[in-house]
Design goal:
Largest sheet: 8 strands, antiparallel
Strand content: 25-35%
Number of strands: 23
Number of domains: 2
Shape: globular
Radius of gyration: 25 Å
Distance between the termini: 48 Å
Helix content: 25-40%
Length: 411
């Protein structure tokens, strides 16, 4: 069956013959991209790189959700079609690039029969796509995870894990970006689900890192559950460095292959505000501020310096919220490690060295041994402060970096 619409299915063929061969009826039916690149809900690193290249030829620098992309079986070309549901990949996008192809190397698209031949597809990539973009395609096949954590643990993660690879159960860091690369990591507010477009447009990051929303009386009915998602804007630097040096790190630390799925990197976090109760509608504009100490408070003061009392909040009918933190992690399937090994071998590099990373200018990771790990935890700058002071410090630092990042995006 080939799905053209969530509510309509088209018959592709049937096996009602003695030989059991597929009788083709609709030879030109489009094929959902997800049916090709996903195997047991795992994204193929080689096919991901291949279709990123195809998207670059079709729409350079485009970012299109996978659930909107289809393949023309006659030409192998990508096209947009009806949106389909892909569990676990709702927001997954394919990225094109103007610099994805190597000069003067233009080959026709692969036939759909070739997609299952990993070696043939990889050979096509090495002839048409730069080494760095093959790495991008492999590194982009990470598996995202989400986990609720306590505030104290969130502070620890914010201070310790950006720019590092760590063991999920022991929390031990095994590799990290060099200090010069870690210093360039910046948090930014990636997503704000706040109920109404008016509230979203009025979002302001304050000097102390708090986030302010201006709420009118009519907006109160929309001020329900809210989500603020923060990401590290250059987390891909670590992802690409890690995927090119993963065999080197595991070799140095003598980590067996059956343990490779226990290592992760940190990507960001989500602050979730769940509405507890509502009262009658207020009669004037107020500001809702996410604060480092009380998580949020209401205020008539646009600077957020004067907090509204609980009694006033109740009398005005303003909602109150509970607060939780979700941390976003990611790791890679064994297929990604196998694909990068193919790239090492293609260039005649020893996969247990950093030669591949060096060849494309990626930062060389620092491998962290047991002694270095304990020294880092004992260092004064990494010790946790009190609960509120520590969170204030982190939020303030995030706020400063977010403002810088937002300014650069406007230019």
């Amino acid at each position: 069956m080939i799905v053209r619409d969530p509510y309509v299915a088209q018959l592709f063929g049937y096996n009602n013959n003695q030989n059991g061969l597929l009788a083709l009826i609709f030879y030109n039916a489009l094929i959902p991209l997800s049916h090709i690149v996903l195997n047991n809900n795992i994204l193929s690193p080689v096919l991901n790189g291949y279709f990123c290249h195809q998207l670059s030829l079709w729409q350079p620098d485009a970012r299109i959700a996978m659930n909107n992309l289809w393949i023309d079986p006659k030409t192998g070309a990508l096209c947009q079609g009806p949106q389909i549901r892909i569990p676990g990949f709702k927001r997954w996008k394919l990225w094109g690039s103007t610099s994805n192809s190597m000069p003067n190397n233009h080959f026709p698209a692969l036939s759909i029969q070739t997609y299952r031949d990993t070696s043939a597809t990889f050979d096509y990539l090495t002839k048409t796509v730069s080494t760095l973009n093959i790495i991008r395609g492999i590194a982009g096949c990470y598996r995202p995870y989400k986990e609720k954590v306590a505030e104290k643990e969130a502070i620890f993660i914010l201070k310790t894990y950006p720019g590092a690879i760590y063991q999920r159960h022991t929390q031990q860091i095994i590799a990290r970006l060099p200090a010069t690369a870690r210093d360039r990591l910046q948090y930014y507010l990636r997503r704000a689900d706040v109920g109404s477009n008016a509230m979203r447009k009025n979002l302001v990051v304050m000097k102390n890192g708090s986030v302010r929303f201006t709420v009118t009386p009519m907006d109160i009915k929309h001020a329900k559950d809210m989500l603020l998602q923060y990401s590290i804007c250059q987390f891909t630097t670590l992802a690409r460095s890690w995927i090119t040096q993963v065999h080197s790190v595991y070799s140095q630390l003598q980590i067996h292959k059956d343990k490779w799925n226990e290592y992760y990197m940190y990507r960001g976090l989500e602050l979730n505000f769940k509405c507890k109760r509502h009262h009658s509608r207020p009669q004037e504009n107020t500001d809702l501020t996410s604060s480092e100490s009380t998580k949020y408070f209401w205020s008539f003061d646009s600077s957020g310096k004067e907090k509204m009392s609980q009694a006033m909040q109740v009398s005005l009918g303003l909602p109150s919220f509970t607060f939780t933190i979700d941390v976003d992690y990611l790791d890679w399937d064994q297929s990604a490690y196998e694909a990068i090994k193919m790239l090492h071998d293609y260039h005649h590099f020893d996969s247990t060295t950093t030669a591949l990373a060096d060849s494309v200018g990626l930062p060389i990771l620092e491998v962290v041994g047991d002694d270095d790990w304990f020294e880092e935890l004992d260092a004064p700058e990494t010790l946790l402060k009190t609960k509120l002071t520590g969170l204030k410090h982190i939020w303030k630092k995030m706020g400063q970096k977010m403002r810088l990042n937002q300014r650069s995006k406007r230019k």
